[in-house]
Design brief:
The protein is mostly helical. The chain folds into 2 domains: 408 residues, no CATH class; 70 residues, no CATH class. 83% of the residues lie in helices and 0% in strands. It is built from 22 helices and no strands. α3 packs antiparallel against α5 and α9 packs across α10. The protein is globular and about 70 Å long.
Length: 485
């Protein structure tokens, strides 16, 4: 019987991974932005967004469904092996079909043909995605392996970037390095797969049993991918690479911050599914309530701080020439809180309860809102219009999901008193940011001083107002450091 690691251990591992996702771009993004400029950066991100659509179609709903399907049989190696093989067969068939349409699109769509080198390089990632089986490692809660592997390939990518990316025309090389990092992880996953499952051939495979749930999760994934990538793709077609470059800066910072907020949620799906399956509803609701408090406590101060320090953040990360990205960043930053909450209501509440069809409905609504608003606002407002469309799409997703779980909202999963205390702790220190912005300091020192003061006062106020999630984690850390008993 496999030894399942604790939620706390998995969270720590995922927090390390999330921190690396935050730290490494702080090293790479300023360099890439300055070397490739908005146009080169925009080309890479435009093609990457397009390829994400093809990868989504090839994978169907396997990345999410695979976690749940494998988690159910993870104690039986024979059943687990057969399940993994069946899902890989489905993925392989769909990848071959998708590759045909992908190749045709390069020659039929002028924007793709102009960047055919990038399109061909990214096709390698499309093929190797079959062998990645990241969903299996998540189902088995192998977060230590996932974390170590990810950090190793990030380090290799950074070295390659500094060695080979030196001028604007090197954007194709940068795209290739990005693909290499992803494919390297996929290959390592596949090599290690023999330790987890058997590759013996079975007399028969039951692919049919997976089709219906895979399609439900695929529809959900498709709608999510639409409103996550549609803004970038529409910007590329309607306004060009430069606007995509501006928008990339804004969403890069938002994405980094969102990954910090959703770090805990990423490890909870298998555990929450177990609580539901074993009838432990009290533990289920207790864990959800703690997660919501964690999301609000992390996302609210981050959102407030970076909205007020958007100009300095973009100057520090990307240098001059990206000033138009400031408005887009300020508009899109509230999605940190919205995505954090919808991650809880959708992935951690509705999915374990077998209500993923409601998640599908919510993301379809979000995709429709995004499409309509992008069409209306991108022509006149460019990257800021795309940011507004995404903001409204995320708000729509959260509202729809809350409607579906409204019967649980009373004291079961929302602790309004704690959320109010978190809000006060985050709002009161705003004066420190406004004060430091008025000082004649360099960009770096304004960011450093304002961050230390704002988050320091936020932390102290959280303790004084008895914000449980902050207080509990503080006590845990102090005990680990043997500073208290």
């Amino acid at each position: 019987m496999r030894q399942v690691k604790s939620v706390k251990y998995n969270f720590i591992m995922n927090l390390i991974l999330t921190s690396s996702n935050f730290i490494f771009p702080l090293i790479t993004f300023p360099y890439v932005s300055r070397v490739l400029l908005a146009s080169g950066n925009g080309k890479v991100n435009f093609i990457t967004s397009v390829v994400n659509y093809f990868m989504m179609v090839a994978a169907l709903g396997i990345p999410t469904y695979g976690i749940r399907a494998c988690a159910k049989v993870r104690e039986d190696k024979d059943k687990l092996s057969k399940t993994v093989q069946e899902l890989m067969i489905i993925h392989t068939i769909m990848t071959l079909i998708t590759l045909i349409f992908y190749t045709l699109s390069i020659f039929l769509v002028n924007e793709f043909y102009q960047e055919k080198e990038l399109m061909l390089i990214n096709s390698v990632g499309l093929v190797f995605n079959v062998f990645g089986v990241n969903w299996l490692y998540q189902a088995l809660e192998e977060y230590d392996y996932i974390t170590i592997r990810s950090i190793i390939f990030k380090i290799i990518s950074i070295i390659l970037m500094f060695l080979f990316v030196h001028q604007t025309g090197d954007y194709v090389i940068y795209g290739a390095i990005t693909v290499f990092s992803t494919c390297g992880s996929y290959i390592l996953n596949f090599i290690r797969l023999r330790k987890l499952i058997s590759f013996q051939r079975y007399p028969s495979y039951n692919l049919r049993q997976h089709i219906k749930p895979i399609l439900v999760f695929f529809a959900q994934s498709m709608a999510t991918t639409v409103y996550c990538n549609l803004d970038t793709v529409m910007l590329g077609f309607m306004k060009g690479d430069v606007e995509v470059g501006y928008y990339t800066v804004a969403i890069k910072i938002k994405t980094l911050l969102t990954s910090v907020v959703t770090a805990l949620g990423a490890v909870l799906l298998p555990r929450l599914s177990y609580y539901v399956g074993s009838g432990q509803k009290d533990k289920f609701y207790q864990l959800i309530k703690k997660t919501i408090n964690f999301v609000v406590a992390m996302s609210l101060p981050l959102t407030i701080y970076f909205i007020l320090m958007a100009n300095e953040s973009i100057l520090f990360l990307s240098g001059s020439g990206y000033e138009p990205a400031v408005a887009a960043m300020q508009i899109i930053l509230p999605t940190i809180l919205l995505i954090g909450l919808s991650n809880v209501t959708g992935i951690q509440v509705l999915t374990p309860l077998g209500m993923e069809r409601y998640v599908l409905i919510s993301v379809i609504v979000g995709a429709m809102v995004d499409l309509i608003l992008n069409t209306l606002f991108i022509p006149g407002y460019g990257s800021a219009g795309a940011a507004f469309g995404t903001l409204m799409a995320e708000l729509a997703v959260l509202i729809v999901q809350i409607v579906f779980i409204r019967h649980m909202i009373q004291e079961k999963i929302f602790d309004y008193h704690q959320i109010l205390r978190i809000g006060l702790s985050a709002i009161l220190p705003i004066f420190t940011i406004l004060l430091i912005k008025s000082w004649s300091l360099g960009v770096f020192w304004r960011l450093l001083c304002s961050a230390v003061l704002y988050f320091g006062i936020y932390f102290l106020l959280s303790l004084l107002l008895n914000v449980h999630i902050i207080k509990d984690y503080t006590l845990t850390i102090l005990k680990k450091l043997h500073l208290i008993h």
